[in-house]
Specification:
With 373 residues, the protein is α+β, with helices and mostly antiparallel strands. It has 3 domains: 44 residues, no CATH class; 186 residues, DNA polymerase, domain 1 (Orthogonal Bundle); 116 residues, 2-Layer Sandwich (Alpha-Beta Plaits). Helix 3 packs across helix 10 and helix 8 crosses helix 10. This is N-acyl-aliphatic-L-amino acid amidohydrolase. Its EC number is 3.5.1.14. Keywords: Cytoplasm, Hydrolase, Metal-binding, Zinc.
């Protein structure tokens, strides 16, 4: 009983000590325990509770379903939907007693959102993965606001780069020559001018999608210690996403040139530099593609083929020579992954299960290719 306290202790002290025992420190704070504690306090005091979900109409983890059947939650599009669709498609195939020619493996791998280094990138090199003898892989795609379904057969290479600009330090009241800031401005201009050109290419070509051009975004700037001190170094970081049609060696030579033009001793380093440009065949004579597209055609699904604009675990699968298609069967759905008010309509979700049931059945019936013999 709280009123008695612990061993005659004042109940307020006991409550204080109970709250202190909750581990709310980063990097892994137990906020759930803190919320349970505060909910209990509100109940004891007879106080109403108001939880603020900034930018969200509903609690992002409540899976609220509105009158139209739209289910709002983080992960509704990316990609808890596909997980459950796979599981339910397999459940239906098993219930029907279907015997498939190939083995179907469901893979649940961590860390895709933070680069996949401890997830799929490591797993594809593991003997357990090699033992699976994979012929083909399905992975996540994106929603499509129109009637069609988007299919991804390749993706852009993410390059995360930091450019270091050293310069002459000095007092903020003087015109010091060869400063870090002047070099930084030159570097920024080079990258952002290129960004404008690529944006213009995308906006003026009817046949280009985001995956067909290089995106450049300046994401971090670092430097300086005080208002009146000219810094000895300034850094700027960029997130680049490069399509498989670009010559990566030439592109890096261009970056070197921009650094050289900016001034002496300007250097760069990569936090991430993916070089694999494997794409999956979408030729009609390819057995995997013809089976995938044929199954879609039999369900009257219109497909739009694209290069994925961001990055998924497919890149690690393609890098070891396995064909992979990125596909989330979500048409008539605005693209809201990582966005506020992410939602998926229940009818679109349910149709996706039937789509995967047909696709898995068809793909698991593709005869052995000569390379697999």
């Amino acid at each position: 009983d709280l009123n008695k306290g612990q061993c005659g202790e004042d109940p307020s002290v006991s409550l204080f000590r109970e709250y202190l025992r909750l581990k709310t420190v980063h990097p892994d704070p137990d906020y759930d325990a803190a919320l349970r504690f505060l909910d209990r306090m509100a109940e004891e005091l007879g106080l109403p509770i108001k939880k603020i979900e900034e930018h969200w109409k509903y609690d992002a983890f409540s899976a609220f379903k509105d009158a139209e059947g739209n289910i709002y939650a983080r992960g509704s599009q990316d990609m808890k939907c596909v997980t459950i669709q796979y599981i339910q498609a397999i459940r239906r195939l098993k219930a029907e007693g279907r015997k498939l020619m190939r083995t179907v493996h469901l893979m649940f791998v961590p860390d895709e959102e933070v680069g996949g280094h401890k997830g799929m990138e490591t797993f594809v090199k593991h003997p357990e993965f090699q033992k699976l003898n994979i012929g083909f892989a399905l992975d996540e795609g994106l929603a499509n606001p129109g009637e069609a379904f988007t299919v991804f057969y390749g993706e852009r290479n993410p390059w995360w780069i930091t450019v270091h600009c050293p310069g002459s330090p000095g007092h903020g009241s003087r015109f010091v020559e060869n400063t870090a800031a002047e070099k930084l401005r030159h570097v920024m201009n080079s990258f952002l001018d290129f960004r404008e050109k690529e944006k213009h290419r995308l906006n003026t070509s009817e046949c280009f999608t985001l995956g067909d051009v290089t995106t450049v975004n300046m994401t971090m700037v670092k430097g300086g210690v005080a208002y009146n001190v000219i810094p000895a170094e300034m850094d700027v970081s960029f997130d680049l996403r490069i399509p498989p049609t670009v010559n990566l060696q030439e592109f890096e030579r261009q970056i070197k040139q921009w650094c050289k033009e900016a001034g002496e001793d300007v250097t760069y380093e990569f936090a991430q530099k993916h070089m694999n440009q494997n794409v999956t065949s979408t030729e009609e004579n390819d057995p995997w593609w013809s089976t995938f597209s044929g199954a879609c055609k039999s369900m009257n699904l219109t497909l739009e083929k694209e290069i994925f604009p961001a990055a998924t675990d497919s890149r690690f699968i393609r890098a070891v020579g396995i064909p992979a298609i990125g596909f989330s069967p979500m048409n008539r759905t605005p693209i809201l992954l990582h966005d506020h008010n992410e939602f998926l309509n229940e009818q679109v979700f349910l149709k996706g299960i039937s789509v995967f049931e047909r696709l898995i059945s068809a793909l698991a019936s593709v005869p052995a290719c000569p390379a697999e013999a």
